[in-house]
Amino acid sequence: MDEILVDWDEFRATRTQLGAAFVRILGYFREDGTKSVAAIEEAMRARDARGLVMPAHTLKSEARQFGAERLGALTEDIEMFARHCVEAQVSPEEYLPRVVNLRALFEETLAALEREANPLVQRKPVGFGRAVGY
What we know:
Helix content: over 70%
């Protein structure tokens, strides 16, 4: 996919709009997204196109709220294909490779969002004030 991982302007706009609730909402994205990815994987294992639609739709919407363009595009693609499969009454197994890539993309995206949301978490003390040898 050619999309950028995260549209940081969109991310910052959402952070500004949500204010103090931003970190809590990002936490919900982590929880809901993890559940959506698992539901998509399970539906694919069961070759259940109908079961792909709602978790893909949910994850698409939540991802785009944070500017997660690549994740939003992949989940929209899965959702639209699943809807087609439901209408045509065919198995969604053709999309197995996309679903296989979904978890890694979700985790990469979430890590980037969380890093940007709280860059201090990623910083380690330089050592100032620590005794030598400890």
